[in-house]
Amino acid sequence: MGRCRLLLIPFLLAGAARPGLQEEARPEADALRLGWPQLAGPCSSFQTVPMATPLIGDLSRARRLWESGCRDLGRAKGGSQAYRRVEQFTVEEFARMGSHPGNWAGPVVAEGMVFCASWRPCGDWVTVGGSKVRLDAEDIVVALDALTGKTRWLAAEPGGILKGGGKRQGFQVGPVVHKGAVYSLGSTARLFAHDAAAGRKLWVSDDHPARAAEAKARQEALAGLAEGKWKYNLTPNWCSSLAVAQGVLIVPDQAGGLVGVDLEKGRKQWSAPGVIARWATPSVWRHEDREYVLCANEKGELRLIEPVTGKELWRLAGLGPNWFTLAPGRDHVLVNVVADSGGGGRGSERKPGRLGAVRLSPSGGERAWLVGDGFEHSLPVWMDSGARIRVLYRGGRFLVPNCWQGRGSAAEGVEGPAGGTALLIEEATGKVLSRLAAAETWNEQLSGLAYWCGDHVLARADSYHGPKHGGRHPWTLWSVAGDAITRLPGRMDLVEFTNGYEVTMEAPLVAGLLFERTEQGGIVCCDLRAP
């Protein structure tokens, strides 16, 4: 993977230097090798590696390629009251829900394999209040063959615990793959490194700031069970995933801070408190063959951090609250710039935000242009919606999907109303190249979970409500060829997917293959490649 990454990343950046240039397509094997190694993809911009094999033009022709035999990953979001009471941690309840509660993060892909980190129950069943329950768990990392779904390896480490969460506030920390190793954060804040090819444990580290408190909470919870008592915090609310920048593991600390960790032994090198929103994953911005950490927070601050030392290179204040994961372009990034936006508490007025571009350099950031100048384009930056905003970037273009959904119960149904627009924007100038008016129904909107693949964008407007708790929400396919957004035929609805809520669970699109976690604790692969 290391050699492939070094060859490809400068190549992609060269393409980004000339807006509209189509990157050279890669063979499928190369695309699978580089894959989707971190939450926002190989370039931190939600774009896939260009692939020689074209995608289907009609999404109804997509097919399920495989479903994993491994179903140890658990499920994620349930209903408002799921996994919040003692009787919900019984074998009967796990069977009724489809699986035990697991990590809410999606998989990552690299070296022709699909990796996912979670935990599975172990130990004895204990009777509490008339229910036989189990909390003890082992943290696991699973590697599946990307083309067949067969388990390549599964590494398990005792000392974990089942995490709770219902509709909200799950443990949603995804792994990252870098130069032949996969790094993950376990249920009690232990950091793990495994050899990606064979699953051999390289190291385990207790250097996460939350480790001592999490270990103590586990001990107290299990001691309480031994006495027939339920003592457990069911709302972890961890929603930031791992990243690697300039050879340093970047780890969220759960409280809006970041920690730099040595890749060789798992030792903490630096910490930066209060720099990122608690629901966002740190982004990697590349400039002249160097990588930097780019992050924003709810206070309206945008920062560039040197990842080796943790030094803050600059800070731009006076922006609006930014809860979402940033997608930096070649030399701009889009952020909410309305300083007093947000709100939405009881009796308070909600003020929408608006995206604006900040021009980036290693020495400073400066505001450049507003998104959608001449078009109405505002953002919901409050509870439930603030972390769902998604921006995509590819080859000198930003794509801003529609982020407005109709209000009321109908908006969460199968065909709720839609509102707002999606925009394709030229990075250098902010010029709107294409505007997509709101569709008649939410499921037909270019919105929500979206991935940019060549001239195509794959999107699912509602990934926050699963098939069993909120209605069916299919994938749609869009063309952006010639800088024009157009809807392509067909829908895809092939997976009983599990999901997050405030923060979307990612379903990486790699080499024409889409990988989604299921309610039953496994992974399904859907094939979007043209015959």
Give a brief outline of the structure.
The chain has 531 residues and is mainly beta. It contains four helices and 33 strands.
Structural features, described:
With 531 residues, the chain is mostly beta strands. The protein has one domain (2-526): 7 Propeller (Methylamine Dehydrogenase, Chain H), CATH 2.130.10.10. 8% of the residues lie in helices and 31% in strands. The protein has a 4-stranded antiparallel β-sheet with strand order 1-33-32-31, with no helix packed on it. A 4-stranded antiparallel β-sheet has the order 2-3-6-7. It has a 4-stranded antiparallel β-sheet with strand order 8-9-10-11, with no helix packed on it.
Walk across the major sheet and give the strand order. Answer: 1-33-32-31
Low-confidence stretches: 1-22, 407-417
Whole-number radius of gyration? Answer: 22 Å
Number of helices: 4
What global shape is seen?
A: globular
Tell me what portion of residues adopts beta-strand conformation. Answer: 25-35%
Give the assembly state of these chains: single chain
- CATH class (first level) name: Mainly Beta
CATH fold type: Methylamine Dehydrogenase, Chain H
| Integer average pLDDT | 88
Architecture, CATH level 2?
7 Propeller
Quickly count the domains.
Answer: 1
Class by SSE composition: mainly beta
Structure summary, number of beta strands: 33
Q: Which superfamily, in CATH terms, is the homologous superfamily?
A: YVTN repeat-like/Quinoprotein amine dehydrogenase
Share of residues in helices: under 10%
Cα distance spanning the termini: 28 Å
